[in-house]
Amino acid sequence: MAVSKRKQEVKPLGNDTKKVKLSKESGKGFSNQKKMRKNLVEDSDDDEGEEEYQGGSDIEMEDVEEAGFKGTAPNQSNAQNNNANGGNTNSNKSRESHAAQKKLANERKFAKPNADVIHRSKKIWERLRRKSHVPLDERKQLTDELFTIVTGRVKELVFKHDASRVIQTAVKYGSSERRQDIAKELKGEYVQLAESAYGKYLVVKLMHYGNTKTREMIIGEFYGHVRRMVKHKEACYVVDDAFREYATPKQKASLIREFYGVEYAIFKDDSKNASLKSLLEENPEKRPLIMKSLFELINQMVEKNMSVLQILHKAMLEYILNVRPETSEAADLIELIKEHLGNIAFSKDGAQVIMRCFAWGSAKDRKVMLKNLKPSIQELYADEHGHMVLLAIFDVVDDTVLVSKTVFPEIQTKLDEGSAATHAIARIPLLYPLLGRETKLMHPQKIELLAEIDTIRAQTSKKDPKIRQQELRKALSPALLKSVATNAADLATTPLGCQFASEVIIFAEGDKAAAAEAIATFAEGEDALENKDLGRMLKNLVQEGFFNNKTQKIQLSDPPVEFYKYLMPKIEPNLAAWATGGNSYLIATLLESERVPESERMKIKKILSGKSEQAAIKSAKQAGNKGTDLISNLLKGKK
C-alpha cells in the first residue's frame, strides 16, 4: 500500500497481494501518498489485461475447470500415443470423468446463494470494466442494467471479492443518485466493510466518488471505533485515507481525539479543535492518563508497521508538541520511531515530528537518527515537507562534522548535475547554510516553524547558532562553488539558476575565481544584452550583495569577490550597447558600486563620453530607458 525508503523488505499489513519493497528506487513514504491513494481507489478495478484476484471464488470455478482441462495437455499427448497402441478406451473414460466433474462443479456453483445474480452481473462487468473500448452511451446502458440487478442485494455481494469488484465498478460509473442509493443500502456496515480485505476498496470508492453527504455518513460510522480500526491490518488504510483526503476539519478533530483515550471514543465531542494542548489545559488532572493512552496507541501502530499513516503522524505531532522537558516523554517517542524516520519525514505533520525529535534528542539520539535517515536524504532535500527536516538538522545538531559527512555527500550527485540549483525546493537546504532564515529563500510560515524549535534547542544544544552556521557554510561551500563553475550554462539561462549562482558566489567561502569566470563568460553573447535574469544576476554580482529588508542595507560579501575583474573584459567591447540596452542598470551599478575601484569607473566614463556613445545614450533616454537616464546623470556627476 505504501512505500518507504528503508533498504529492507517489510511485510505489508493484511493479506495484500503486493509486497512493499522499501528502497531508493521505490520512492519515499509520503511522496507516494497520491499513488497509495490511487491504489485504494483503483487497485480493485480490473482494466483490460489486469490480473484477477487469487483465491476462492465460486463464480470462477468454470474458468478454473477450463484451465485445468488445458493443463492436461501432456496427458492428452499420452492418450494419443495410447490410441496408436489401442488405448482409446482409457482416453474416453478420461473425457467422461472430466465432463462429470465439470457438471458437478457448475451445479455446486449455481446452488450457492445469489449465484445467478453474481453470474449475470459479472457478465455485464466484464464488458463495462474495459473503459478503453466502451462508448459512453453503451456504458450508461450497461451501468443501468447492472444497477437493476444488484440493487437491494448490495450487502449480500460486497464481501465476495469478485462481486465486490462489480459493485465498485457500478459506483465508479454510476450517477450521483445511484451512488447515493448504494451508500444508503450499506448504511451500518462501513466499519465491517473497512475491515474486509475486499470491502475496504468499496468504502474508499464511495468516499472518492460520493458527495459530501456520503462521506459524512461513512466517516460518522467510524466514530467510536477509530482506536480499533487504526490497528486493523485492512481498516487502518481506510481511516487514514478518510482522514487525509475526505474529512472536514471538524471530522478530522473527531477522529484524532479518539487517540487520546477510550472516553473520547465513547463520548463524542463536536469541537473543531483536535488540539491536545487545549484538552490538557481544560483537564490538567487527566494529563498522565491521556499522554499514556496516546503513546500506547502510537506504540502499537508503529510495532505493526503502520508508520506510513498520516493520521498516526498527526497523533505523534500532538504528542511531541505537549511533552515536558522534566519527563522522559520525548525520549520515549524518539526511541520508538528512530528506525522509522524514512516513513514519517515526508508528510506535513511527520516532518514536524522529526524536526522536534532532533531538537529534543541527545547527541547520541541525533547521531542514530542521522544514520537512519541517511538513505532518505536524496529525496528529502527536494521534498515539499521533508526538506524542513534537513533545515532543523542544520539548526540543532552541534556535531557539524557529522552533518557534513552524512548529509552533504548524499546530495552531491544532484548538485553536480545542476538539477538541485534550479529546483524550487531543493535549493533551499543548499542555500540555507549561506543565507539562513531569509524570506527570499523560503516562505515566512516555514521560518516560523523553524523558530518554534529555537526554545527547545536552547535547552538541548550547546553550540552558538552563528558558529554552527559558519561551520556548515565552510563545509558546503566548495561543492556549491564547483557546481556553479561546472553548470554555469544551465544556471545562467533560468531565473532560479541565476539567483542560485549569484547567492553562492557572494556568500560562499573559498576560491570563487572559477565560478565567477564561468558566469562572467555569458556576458559576451548578444542575447545577454536583453536577458533580464542574467542582467539582474550580473548586477547583484557587481554590487556583491543583496538588499536586506531587516537592516535596510545591502548585505555585502566578506571578503570582496571583485567580480568586476571578471566582467569588464567581457563587456568592454560592447559597453555602449550595454549602456543603452535592456540591461543598462548593470552599467549604472558599475558606476555606483563601492566594490568597483575609482580607476575602473573612470575607464567606463571615458568610453561612454565618446561622441557616438553620447548620441546613443541620448537616443535611449528619449526612448524611455530609465537605466540609460541614470547612466547619463552619473556621467555628469549627478545621482
UniProtKB/TrEMBL annotation:
Pumilio repeats lie at residues 185-220. InterPro entries: ARM-like (IPR011989), ARM-type_fold (IPR016024), CPL_dom (IPR012959), PUM-HD (IPR033133), PUM3 (IPR040059), Pumilio_RNA-bd_rpt (IPR001313). Residues 75-92 have a biased composition (Low complexity). Keywords: Repeat, RNA-binding. GO terms for molecular function: mRNA binding. Residues 120-484 form the PUM-HD domain. It holds the Pfam family CPL. Residues 1-27, 93-110 have a biased composition (Basic and acidic residues). RNA-binding nucleolar protein required for pre-rRNA processing. Involved in production of 18S rRNA and assembly of small ribosomal subunit. This is PUM-HD domain-containing protein. It comes from Arthrobotrys oligospora (strain ATCC 24927 / CBS 115.81 / DSM 1491). The lineage of its organism: Eukaryota, Fungi, Dikarya, Ascomycota, Pezizomycotina.
